[in-house]
Design brief:
Largest sheet: 10 strands, mixed
Number of strands: 10
Radius of gyration: 19 Å
Shape: globular
Distance between the termini: 24 Å
Helix content: 10-25%
Length: 255
């Protein structure tokens, strides 16, 4: 069966998350229904990451198997037509080798978290950015974040319901930068624990407010104690920005 790679953008606000659930509508469900509307086939669309309720995506990746060959642009346009008016867009669709797996072939995942710390509330993006009405020290946040980069036991920043077998992860990047009244936090790793990014962001906010010294983030990490984390940042400021894969000539990585 021909396999296709989908790159997807969505507003997570109306959904219970990426994965199908019994308690509401999921992004995965919306796309699977669009595939059925286009081809008449009942399929499983498998994503690179299971974003939580309210989390957005700029570059979620999924794969789907269909029974016939289609041009990528035909799949893209047809699915988008069937997805309207839901806030989900198939940015691209392309044929891939049967060995490609959106989840297991991924070698890096990139997340973006947006914080607005201007005094006035955001009128245009109230559900796409975390508004903090007091100014934050982005430089201090960035310095504190560097204690988390590398291979560590991230128990402190792991949701108590996380199903991962190990709390150990390698965080390749955690950068904090400012552009005007908005702070961007960018995190990159092969994989993340449940709520890890939002927990790290909530902790860094404490530093930005001056309520925690810079060294406290490293101390919280070393404690390997969930109670030492700062608050979990709201879902609506988080975006799955991109997912990286090996070049076509490389063997897909497995985890």
């Amino acid at each position: 069966m021909p396999r296709y790679k989908l790159t997807i953008e969505y507003d997570g606000g109306p959904f219970v998350g990426w994965q199908r659930q019994e308690n509401g509508r999921a992004v995965q469900q919306a796309i699977e229904e669009a595939v059925f509307g286009f081809t008449g086939e009942t399929v499983a669309v498998k994503g690179a990451g299971r974003t939580d309720a309210g989390v957005h995506a700029l570059g979620q990746v999924a794969h789907v198997d269909l029974t016939r060959d289609w041009a990528g642009k035909t799949i893209r346009d047809a699915l988008n037509a069937h997805l309207r008016p839901e806030p989900v867009s198939i940015v691209s669709a392309e044929p891939v080798d049967a060995a490609f797996d959106a989840r297991f072939s991924a070698i890096e995942r990139h997340y973006l978290y947006r914080i607005s710390d201007r005094r006035a509330p955001p009128a245009l993006d109230p559900d796409r950015v975390w508004w903090v009405s007091t100014g934050l020290d982005a430089e201090a946040m960035h310095l504190a974040a560097q204690a988390l980069v590398g291979r560590h036991d991230f128990t402190t920043f792991r949701n108590t319901q996380c199903q991962a077998k190990s709390p150990v992860r390698t965080l390749d990047r955690l950068d904090v930068s400012r552009a005007g009244g908005e702070i961007a936090i960018r995190a990159s790793a092969r994989s993340f624990l449940h709520s890890q990014v939002r927990s790290m962001v909530g902790t860094l906010k404490k530093v930005g407010e001056g309520r925690w010294p810079i060294r406290s983030v490293g101390e919280a990490l070393a404690a390997q104690d969930r109670t030492r984390s700062g608050p979990v940042a709201p879902a609506h400021g988080l975006y799955l920005a991109a997912v990286d894969y090996p070049d076509a000539d490389d063997t897909p990585a497995k985890s």
